[in-house]
Backbone:
């Protein structure tokens, strides 16, 4: 027993003992994190065939690689010593949801350089082609998946969930998108777009991926159920009454103040003129 303790004590004082202990500790912490950490939504290529991924790669190389690199690593493509004028970010790990949002809303491919990529109505690709490009990007690394029909189904949202969705929107989104989702200006020429014409899928994907100036709201920040509730509040106008009357575009005190000055002060001036004419 004494010999065993002496041997252990000698090994403990070995110069490599600290390195071995740190390596074991890191291995243990990494294993526990992988086992216990909440998993973010990851794009799965199980439903996408190899042909879809290969076709998506060809579409990517033809339309996106100039800015995002031949392997979607970002930084653009160097041709004759010149790199693309507008090098794009890496797409490794952005997931299928980011591709479906950016390409499906017409923001990508970017038409011209500017502070922000605007939404356009004319989409260059069919939904099948968008799905194929999304499958290719998803095959490169795990990332947020395109939301399912169940996640986008707002018909099951009750009044309590609707109220919660409205509260979460006002807390996390209203400072940029306006209290009614009408959008607003940001710094350096950027802006938060109006959500009036945004589809439920694109709203959900934007929360998952955080495009442009928007932060990422993954499922650990805002749960999938709460995302659905937010979408229900934004898209079900009949459940958003206006107890104050005329909304004036719901853009806030600017339009309301203008209306007060033009209509209210104008009415008072008219009354004053009428009273003056009556007295004379």
Residues:
């Amino acid at each position: 027993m004494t010999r065993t303790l002496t041997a252990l004590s000698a090994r403990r004082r070995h110069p490599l003992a600290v390195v071995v202990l740190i390596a074991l500790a890191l291995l243990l912490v990494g294993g526990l994190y992988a086992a216990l950490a909440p998993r973010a939504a990851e794009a799965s290529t199980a439903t996408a065939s190899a042909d879809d991924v290969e076709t998506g790669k060809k579409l990517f190389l033809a339309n996106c690689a100039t800015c995002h690199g031949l392997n979607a690593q970002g930084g653009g493509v160097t041709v004759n010593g010149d790199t693309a004028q507008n090098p794009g970010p890496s797409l490794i790990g952005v997931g299928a949801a980011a591709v479906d949002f950016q390409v499906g809303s017409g923001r990508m491919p970017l038409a011209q350089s500017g502070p922000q990529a605007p939404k356009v109505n004319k989409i260059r690709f069919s939904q099948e082609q968008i799905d194929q490009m999304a499958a290719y990007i998803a095959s490169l690394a795990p990332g947020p998946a395109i939301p399912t029909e169940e996640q986008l189904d707002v018909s099951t949202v009750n009044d309590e969930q609707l109220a919660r969705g409205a509260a979460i929107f006002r807390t996390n989104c209203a400072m940029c998108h306006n209290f009614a989702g009408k959008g607003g200006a940001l710094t350096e020429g950027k802006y938060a777009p109006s959500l009036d014409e945004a589809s439920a899928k694109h709203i959900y994907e934007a929360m998952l991926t955080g495009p442009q100036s928007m932060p990422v709201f993954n499922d650990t920040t805002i749960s999938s159920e709460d995302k659905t509730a937010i979408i229900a509040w934004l898209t079900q106008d009949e459940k958003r009454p206006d107890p104050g009357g005329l909304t004036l575009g719901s853009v806030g005190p600017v339009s309301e103040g203008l209306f007060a000055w033009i209509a209210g002060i104008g009415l008072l001036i008219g009354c004053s003129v009428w009273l003056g004419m009556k007295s004379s």
User: Anything to note?
Assistant: The chain has a mean pLDDT of 81.
